[in-house]
Specification:
Mean pLDDT: 87
Radius of gyration: 21 Å
Number of domains: 2
Low-confidence stretches: none
Order of helices and strands: EHEEEEHEHEHHEHEH
Structural class: alpha/beta
Largest sheet: 5 strands, mixed
């Protein structure tokens, strides 16, 4: 049984083919738009009987380290449903992506000078790959020393997919293969229990919305095993 059906962006299709279409009744027309959020993220347009509904989904309008921003320029809708994390909160004056990157690097270097390690809670899909890409570029620029990066198993799976799709997606650095550019170490449960948390190690692990058993939460609540 085929469980996954692939649809391309900006290609309208009939939502369902069943007894309604065979009877000549109206069926919805569906179209996906590149949301720029994670690999495959989409805004969804549904048109039915002349009324067009658009759901933004999680959307990112600015370019990230890997993925380019959303392509919603051609979207038109009678009804718009928006999803947002920031709500009405505005970015602070003087904010820029580069300034945040610089602040991020400084925080890592300061922690390593103290002999501490760095835990970066990160969704396995999307955020993990963006962080890894940033690390790869910083290491190439010698702004960050080369060292192993510890990730979780699910993060590794999605990283493999990002690498496989590098030349088939709308992204920056299509030749950057994260698994080749970085020394990725997948942490298993038993390793989490005994690994030393000192020495400047870098962990990019899922937090699972702060569910207790996820790796990121285990590390954040662990005693210093230096």
């Amino acid at each position: 049984m085929k469980r996954v059906q692939v649809f391309k962006y900006n290609r309208p299709f009939v939502g369902r083919v069943d007894s309604r279409t065979r009877a000549g009744l109206d069926t919805p027309i569906i179209e996906f738009f590149d949301a720029g959020h994670t690999l495959g993220a989409s805004g969804v347009a549904v048109e039915y009987r002349g009324v067009r509904f658009f759901y933004t989904g999680d959307v990112c309008f600015h370019d990230q380290t890997l993925l380019r921003g959303a392509l919603y320029d051609d979207v038109r809708a009678d009804i718009l449903l928006m999803e947002t994390t920031r709500g009405e909160k505005e970015l602070p004056d003087g904010f820029s992506r580069q300034s945040e990157i610089d602040r991020f690097i400084s925080a890592i270097q300061e922690a390593q000078k103290r002999g501490g390690s760095i835990l970066i809670p990160s969704f396995a899909l999307g955020r993990t790959q963006e962080i890894l890409a940033l690390f790869a570029l910083l290491m190439q620029q010698k702004r960050l020393k080369r060292q192993p990066i510890y990730i979780g198993g699910l993060g590794k799976v999605f990283t493999e997919i990002y690498d496989e799709q590098a030349h088939r997606t709308r992204r920056h650095h299509p030749d950057l293969q994260l698994q080749e550019a970085l020394q990725l170490e997948v942490l298993e449960l038993e390793q989490i229990k005994r690994i030393k948390l000192s020495g400047g190690k870098i962990f990019v692990l899922t937090a699972g919305m702060l569910v207790r058993k996820h790796a990121g939460v285990r590390f954040s609540t662990a005693d210093d095993r230096g």
